Amino acid sequence: MNQAALIDRVAGVLERIPGLGGAYLGGSHGRDEADAYSDVDIYVVVAEADEIPERLARLEESLDEMAPILYSKVLPNARTINCITMDWLRFDLTVVSGIELAFVAGGAAKPLFDRLGLADALSATPPSTPGPVADALLEVVNEFIRVLGLSMVVRGREDLVVAQTGTNLLRDMLIRTMAMENAPQPRRGVLALQHDLTPEQMAVLLDLPPLDATWASIFARTRAIAEQFFPRARVLAEKLDAPWPETFERVTRKLLGDRIGLHI
Q: 120 or 81: whose pLDDT is higher?
């Protein structure tokens, strides 16, 4: 089964379930950006929000009609069923009310069927591509400095494994900051970084020093990540009028140099 066949089968089953007001193809398929490795995001529409728990339970009962299911689970939002088929096609069913549809779909969704007549209103909704906000950036910046400072702890404990994990956390926060640099744009997620980042940004990430199980390697990679992160984050902070945590950064940098020789 390919993605197109999966979409047709899921849509056919959904259309036969009583009480559903419609189904819409969202995500990369809704934006016409899907490739052979994309998952399939489907918004299942009900008239009122209080119908969601009952309809979600009914969808769970119907999964095997849609495709041979290898794995499925209801996500913590209690609206989305995450599914993997026996041939490892991935699809999500998210139940929303008619009022919520335009908000969650961001104006980029295609009707599979539309009993509530929402398609025209949805097509008139401009795509939602909010830019970064100061609070979100500061959350990343403060967490970056905190994790950077924990290098003193893991070096003191001689824990190379945890130190390697820390460098990966720092790299992930660099990636988040790079994505903020490119906003406004829809985020595609960790499996689609080539769509979220520019070629220059990807080249920076690919050029980071390799991570070996030595302190020299870990410090070199940490330093390289920090040297990319701080200038980029500062430029964003100025654009967003976000107050930079000067003291937190300055004290952390000094202690890293004084205590473990990690000069950033």
A: 81
